[in-house]
Write a structure and sequence with these properties.
The complex is a heterodimer of chains A (347) and B (314). By secondary structure, chain A is mostly helical. Helices cover 71% and strands 3% of the residues of chain A. Chain A is built from 15 helices and two strands. Chain B is built from 15 helices and no strands. With 314 residues, chain B is an all-alpha fold. Chain B folds into two domains: 66 residues, no CATH class; 220 residues, MetI-like fold. Classes of the chains: A mainly alpha (347), B mainly alpha (314).
Chain lengths: 347, 314
């Protein structure tokens, strides 16, 4: 059964892939076959359709989330015997430890200077990326709307969406590449500085501005998404509104600001929240470009470092970071659910 | 979105003849085109659009050019000198694909093995669930649907460590199974939400008619709805494909061994350890980008459709 759990050769890997799909299809077929008979009560049918999903989400998302929340309130503490000294476990020869309820993980995150920096960086990311990406996307969508090259122009800006964040990070790492003054620059950004008569600059290393240079990468990735959604919204603005405004003498920028933007406000809000959520959770850009060094880490990246790189001591802190991440998105959840309800009502 | 079509018809009263409607529509179109022209003839506006387009294209273009330049050229001059002093090679690609430093061919295969089940399984499950939420009446339906929608926003990070413990206890570590299962679970909330939106757009009368004819839920799902949903399935399929292929977090946590690592993780690793070897990095980056880019360009229409179904409702 080695190929099933530890495939190494090309054929084994492809085989286990096919088996996974076939297994899945067989199980689903069986479930559907079982519920598809006359006079089966509705709850059985519903269970067949929704059950697998609910089970997967409960085990794979809900339960882990609860467990992580609990973990974030636990620290490991040595068990003290009656004499006030740590108890040694006879079988392992180690100090016994127990998990106790504690707010230590959270107080560490909020008091430690390093973590504070991480929180500030995260705030910068979540404020700047959605606002700038949406603004650029909106401006671009308006500028190329109904021009001859609209399709092509939009594709250019939309393309980074298809590239992985890792790919985008490599692309920008190359733009920011630094060579000492005097030697030929191979990164475009530094070459521009040199052409302007300035010294080359360590874009990714110099604090605090390096965070902003990472943020630019995320804006570059997300603007295409904003542009596409907003472009569709702009095209859906009813003609009569535009005409009425034109009769009232609104033109050009005024028309855009007073009529177009208010009309597409719901779409703008959706775009802002979607990008904010994506930005909050993403760790790829920071991980690939600086690894979180030089004061560029964000919560999503720090979570990974703490949980998977720092050993046992980091797990509680990692959990606390994950919970903080979750708490920041709760308002977004609430807002989106409300928005969805409104849409359902107008249907 | 068919809204733009409707928008043009809006101000026309219903009692006009088709011809009148048509000419009125033409007139309107012409007017709007003219309006657009006056708006965009401003050189500032076009200039700004061109600047944005350049900023969004040049970084990728520069790396692409670099990936085809000989190593010595890459290290000694900027890619923009390529046009004055061209030197072309595909060595970077063959090195990145085969040599010991990169050996990306194997990781490319891993990505492929990961992505197929991780797209097929969640879509199928989500389709079934979306059907139930859209067309079967049951108690607590709305509450459960909203709960699933809300789960969409739970950061993956929250679930990773307990899930990993679960997989280790089940003896599944160091295999593809955790990656498939994790991608299935993480992709489902959005899939259900989007597919439900599409499913609701199917006219009620079609489903009702099938029901009157005595078709059960399974038959309605496969015979009546599936053919109508092909574009939606394509849309979400591309979504999930891009997401899984481009993923780094799930892969680094659940497929850490080189034997399972997908290409994104391999490139990220390369970037850390061989940060200055641009001949490997640039070629590697394009090898990892090429598949999603091809899928994206080929099926762009569906992708945008899927995006808009979730994006601009309301």
């Amino acid at each position: 059964m080695d190929w099933f759990l530890q495939p190494t050769s090309v054929t084994d890997k492809l085989l286990v892939m096919v088996v996974a799909i076939v297994l899945f299809v067989a199980i689903m077929g069986l479930i559907l076959w079982a519920i598809d008979r006359p006079k089966v009560p509705t709850w059985v049918v519903v269970t067949g359709f929704v059950g697998p999903v609910l089970a997967a989400l409960a085990v794979g998302l809900l339960w882990p989330a609860i467990k992580t929340a609990i973990q974030s309130f636990q620290v490991s503490q040595a068990v003290l015997g009656p004499n006030g000294k740590p108890v040694i476990d006879r079988t392992t020869g180690q100090r016994s430890s127990e998990l106790v309820f504690s707010l230590d993980n959270y107080s560490r995150v909020f008091s430690d200077a390093g973590f504070q920096k991480v929180l500030i960086n995260t705030a910068l990311w979540v404020l700047l990326v959605p606002i700038l990406a949406t603004a650029i996307g909106l401006i671009y969508a308006v500028l190329v709307d109904r021009t001859r090259f609209e399709k092509f122009a939009k594709a250019l800006v939309f393309l980074p969406m298809a590239i992985s964040m890792v790919g985008a990070s490599i692309i920008w790492k190359f733009v920011y590449e630094y060579r000492q003054a005097g030697s030929p620059q191979i990164g475009l950004a530094n070459q521009l500085l040199v052409w302007l008569g300035l010294e080359p600059y360590q874009f990714l290393i110099t604090e605090p501005w390096n965070t902003f240079f990472l943020i630019i990468v995320m804006i570059w990735i997300q603007a295409g998404f904003a542009m596409t959604v907003l472009s569709a919204a702009i095209k859906a603005v009813p003609d009569d509104i535009i005409e009425a405004a034109q009769l009232d003498g609104a033109t050009g920028f005024k028309l855009f600001r007073k009529v177009t933007v208010p009309t597409i406000r719901p779409a703008v809000v959706v775009v802002l929240t979607t990008i904010a959520m994506g930005t909050l959770k993403a760790f790829d850009v920071v991980r690939t470009m600086t690894g979180g060094q030089f004061g560029t880490s964000v919560v999503a990246n720090e979570f990974y470092t703490q949980s998977f790189r720092q050993g046992q001591g980091g797990v509680g802190v990692g959990a606390a970071l994950a919970v903080i991440l979750f708490i920041i998105v709760i308002p977004v959840i609430a807002y989106n659910v409300r928005q969805m309800r409104l849409v359902e009502e107008t249907r | 979105m068919s809204q733009s079509g409707q928008a043009i018809e809006l101000p026309i009263t219903t009692d006009s003849t088709p011809e009148e409607k048509y000419s009125a529509r033409q007139q309107k179109k012409a007017m709007r085109l003219q309006d657009a022209k006056t708006k965009l003839s401003s050189p500032w506006a076009s200039g700004l659009a061109i600047i944005i387009a350049i900023l969004w294209t040049i970084p990728t273009f520069g790396l692409l050019v670099t990936s085809f330049r000989p190593v010595s050229d890459i290290q000694n001059s900027g890619w923009w000198t390529f046009f004055a002093n061209p030197g072309f090679t595909i060595d970077n690609y063959s090195n990145a694909l085969s040599n010991s430093a990169g050996g990306l061919g194997n990781f490319f295969l891993n990505s492929f093995v990961i992505v197929l089940p991780a797209v097929v399984i969640p879509i199928t499950l989500a389709l079934l669930a979306a059907y139930a939420f859209a067309w079967i009446d049951f108690k607590g339906r709305d509450a459960i649907f909203v709960a699933i929608f809300a789960l969409q926003i739970v950061p993956l990070q929250v679930a990773l460590i307990p899930l990993q413990t679960l997989f280790v206890n089940a003896g599944l570590q160091n295999s593809f199974w955790p990656v498939w299962i994790a991608h299935t679970i993480f992709g489902m909330p959005l899939a259900i939400f989007l597919l439900h939106n599409f499913m609701k757009e199917v006219p009620r009368s079609i489903v009702e008619a099938a029901r009157v004819d005595g078709a059960g839920h399974v038959k309605i799902f496969f015979v009546v709805l599936m053919p109508l949903l092909i574009p939606a399935i394509a849309a979400f399929g591309i979504f999930q494909f891009l997401w899984v292929w481009n993923d780094l977090l799930v892969a680094t946590v659940f497929a850490p061994s080189p034997n399972l690592r997908p290409i994104t993780a391999a490139i990220a690793e390369l970037s850390g350890s061989k940060g200055s070897q641009w001949e490997l990095l640039s070629a590697g980056a394009f090898i990892s980008i090429i598949v999603p880019l091809a899928v994206f360009i080929g099926l762009q229409r569906y992708f945008v459709r899927g995006l808009l179904a979730g994006g601009v409702k309301g």
